[in-house]
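Sorry to interrupt, but I need a hand with the structure work. Could you write out one complete protein record for me, on any chain you like? Could you add the entry underneath, on a fresh line?
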Amino acid sequence: MHARIFNRVLVLAALIAAMLATTALQASVEKRIALVVGNSTYKNITPLDNPSKDASLMAETLTALGFILVGGRAQLDLDKSAMDVAVQSFGRQVQGADVALFYYAGHGVQVSGSNYLVPVGANPTREADVDFQMTDVNLVLRQMQGSGTRLNLVILDACRNNPFGSRGLRAADGGLAQMRAPEGTLISYATQPGNVAQDGSDGHSPYTKALATTIRVAGLDVFQTFNQVGLAVKRATAGAQQPWVSSSPIDGTFYFVPPTQAAPPQVAAMQPDPLPAERLRADPDRVPLRDAALLSELSERLYELNFDPDTPDGLTRAITKLQQRIAMAPTGEATEGLLLRMRKMEDLKPWGSIVYGPDGSKWGMSWNHASRRAAVADARGNCAGAKCPIELSFYGSRCGAFAISDRSWSLVQRDSVQRAKDAALDECGKAGKACRIIGAVCADGSGR
C-alpha cells in the first residue's frame, strides 16, 4: 500500500518537474517585456481610487505569465519626469524582444485629436501646456516601433471623464480618441473612443478586472481574448461600457496561455503562420469574417466612414454601400479582403455632429473632433440630459444645419454652411409652416 502511494508521488513529482522544465525552456527562448503604470493620487485634480490597485493586479498577472516588468513591478503614481524615464527605459528594454506590452490605468484625455496620459502632478491651464505636463500615447508607440518585436500591445484603462473641463481647457474631450494601430500593434481601450469608462466600485475597474481574469484562460488567441474581455465588461456594466480594439495585421497567432497547457504558464506563446497569408488565401474577398473581434472592428470602421451598421440589417446595407463606393461587387458580405481595404483607408476628419430628441425638443451640436463617435458623444453631452437619438454627422469640408418649426424639423448637410441652411429650411418648410435655423456648423467649427 505504502509503495503504491510512494510510486504515485514519484510520478506526480516527475510530471511537475517536466512542466517546470518546459516553462523554463520557453522563458529562456522567448522575451516579453511589459511596462505597467497606475496613477491614482493626483495632486491638482480629482484622485482615482482604483488605478494603482489595477496596475498592481496586472503586474502580478503578467509576471505569472512570463513578462519581465520594467522596474521589476508596477510603476505607481508617477509624475511627468518619472513617466518619461519609465517610457524611455521601456523603449530600451523592448529592443529585440518578442512581445512588448504597455498598460496604463489613470486619467487620460484627448486634446485636439491626440491622446495624453496624465501624470499625478499635471496642472495645465491652457492647451499648450499638455505637451510639457502630460505623456502623449504616440510617444509610447514610437518606443515600440523599430524594436524588432513581433507583437506590440497597448492597453489603456484611461477613458475616464475629462478632469480639466472646469478649467476652460476646451480642447480636451471626454474619453480617448481613436488611434490607427501601427504595424504589428493592437491597441485596447477600456471603452469606445470618445466614450467614458467606469473607475469601478469594488477595488478594480470593470475592464482591468475582466482583463486580468481572461488572459489566464488557456487557448484564447489575442483577438479572442479581447473579445471575451469586451463581452465580460458589457455584461458587468449592463451595456454602459463597451471596450474597443484597434489593430493592424498581426503576423502569427499569439496566446497569453497556449491551448496545450492546462495551467497558466510562465510565458506567452507566439506561433508563426506556416505559410504567408497570400499563399494560404489567394482571394481574401471570398474569405468570410467569422471572428467576433474582427467583425466588431469592421463595424466600427464602417461607422467611422459615416455608415450605420448597428441598425437592423444595417451591416449588410453599410457593406453594400461601401463596396459600391470603392468599386467592389456589392455583395454585402463581410470578408477579410474588405477589412484589409478598410485598414488602408485614411481616417476621415474633422467631424461635426448635430443630434435631436423630438420627444423633449432637446438638441446638441459639436465640431472639430477626430472621430465620428467622439463628435456624437460630445453633441449628446450638450443635449441637456436627453437621449437625442436622431443624428446628423459630417466630416471634412461638409457642414450641417438644423431647421425647425412647431410642426416639422430637418437636419441637412451640404458642402457649405449657407447651402446647408437653405436646404434645411426648404426641407422643413414642406410641411407648410415657416421654419427657422437654430443650429449650423461646419465640421471644422467654421460657419457658427
Notes: The CA atoms of residues 218 and 263 lie 7 Å apart.
